[in-house]
Amino acid sequence: MAKAALDDLKVVEYAEMVSGPMCGKMFADLGAEVIKIEPPGCGDEARRHPPYPGDEPHPEKSAFFGYLNTGKKSVTLDPATASGAEIFRKLVADADVLIENYPVGHLARLGLGYDALSAINPKLVMASISPFGQTGPYRDWQGTDLIAWAMSLTGYNTPTLVDDGERENPLRAPGHPAEMMGAANAAAAAMVALAARDATGRGQWIDAPCWQATANTAKLEMAAYSYVGIPFSRLRANVQVGLEPLPCRDGYIYTLWAAEAHWRALKQLLGNPPELDNEIFDDLAGRHENDDILRTLIRGELAKHDMDYLVTEGQRLGLTIGPVHTVEQAANHPHLAAREAFVDIAHPMAGTIRMPRTLVRMTATPPESRRAPMLGEHNGEIFARLGIEAGAQAGLRAAGVI
Q1: CB neighbours of 56 closer than 8 A, spacing ≥ 6?
Q2: What is the DSSP letter of 248?
Q3: Closest CA relative to residue 301, chosen from 268, 270, 263
Q4: What is the enclosing helix (H) or strand (E) of 294?
Q5: Distance of CA 39 to the CA centre of its chain
Q6: Where are the chain's structural domains?
Q7: Rg of the chain's alpha carbons, rounded to an integer?
Q8: Superfamily grouping for domain 246-323
Q9: What sections of 125-218 are H helices per DSSP?
Q10: Which spans in 52-208 are helix H?
């Protein structure tokens, strides 16, 4: 088997739900040993989130947890106890990276903040993922993925549309996009910090707020606002045409017709209807000015055709066009199948679950998708490595420390 890209790294993950575990997953899928610390008894909150096989809840069968924690080792530990804090320090003493996403100041209150841990392990890279960051007036605010999304401008810029084109309330994206972006930022920054450590011999503390990670996706709008003072993404007269899903006979498509080449291709795709040959549509300024008329005409023409025809023929004509897929269509798409984008992972309790494969391909050090751990599955292995013998482990278990 090929060497994994990160198989020389030890990562400790003290995190629950999405942002921290997703960050740890990126390291685990690339071969790092990721030791996941879970609360004794109950484990990561994600274990109590569906879906479950047969819709029967069980902490070892959550596909939500299973996806976020592939390839990790699970230990149970309560760092709020004196003995648990001491074990935590031992785990971190030779770790390369610590990932945490608990409320700001939580680890410091346990005597396990960055300053204390870096005194034990000066090479430690610690990534703290939070809703609003470790500093600033909102550092102690309670935050969720939805709040970070809404506050970052991206929610404002994804309004609903009704049939007459009027804009309604802002939308949220499905899943956990803000926390996923925060996780990706933290993982990338941690890799950069590890490279810097190779040069300096010292680690550092990474502050990765999910709000800013999401706001960064709207930087074009922020720049435009600084010029004209208008939130242009919400105003029809100030956006390029064709920026929302348009209905066809059996679904929806996205397409653009601002560029002249695209406009010509779109007309050809639709059979060159005479209504679109009006001189008021001959240039971009005219199409902007008469967008309400043009959009109505285009919607009427699209409704005459199936999605597959529009996308396939449109692409052949050089038109920027794509389908709006349902989950079922995306999951069974032949392009993703050809790229082996999904992998079947067997779990001793949950059975076999199909999950998205690691998002990148690497020719020399290919990522590997492995199952998520059961709660405390690796207690014996990891704690024995720390010099805690079986009898002592039993005492710690009885005391609720592990």
Answers
A1: none
A2: -
A3: 270
A4: helix 291-302
A5: 24
A6: 10-216+360-398, 246-323
A7: 26
A8: formyl-coa transferase, domain 3 (3.30.1540.10)
A9: 145-151, 177-200, 210-215
A10: 63-68, 82-93, 106-109, 114-120, 145-151, 177-200
- Residue 206: closest CA among 133, 111, 105: 133
| Helix and strand counts by DSSP (H, E) for the chain | 17, 13
What is the chain's length? 402
CA distances to 158, 343, 350 from 211, rounded to whole Å, are: 16, 31, 34
b/e burial code for range 204-227 (CB count within 10 A of at least 16 → b) = bbbbbbbbbbbbeebeebeebeee
First to last CA, the chain: 34
What count of Cα atoms within 13 Å lies in the side-chain half-sphere of residue 36?
A: 32
- 351 HSE (CA, 13 A, CB side): 6
- Output the pTM of the full model: 0.87
Q: What is the dihedral of CA 69, 71, 76, 80, to 10 degrees?
A: -60
Max intra-chain CA distance, the chain? 87
d(CA 401, CA 80): 9
pLDDT tens-place string over residues 152-204:
777 666 655 554 455 555 666 778 888 999 999 999 999 999 999 999 999 99
Cis peptide before 131 (omega within 30 of 0): no
Secondary structure class of 197 (helix, strand, coil): helix
- Fold of domain 10-216+360-398: Rossmann fold (3.40.50)
Burial environment of residue 112 by CB neighbours within 10 A (0 to 12, 13 to 18, 19 or more) = buried
Residue range 269-319, pLDDT digits in tens: 999 999 998 899 988 888 888 888 998 999 999 999 999 999 999 999 999
Find, among 254, 373, 380, the residue nearest to 311 by Cα. Answer: 254
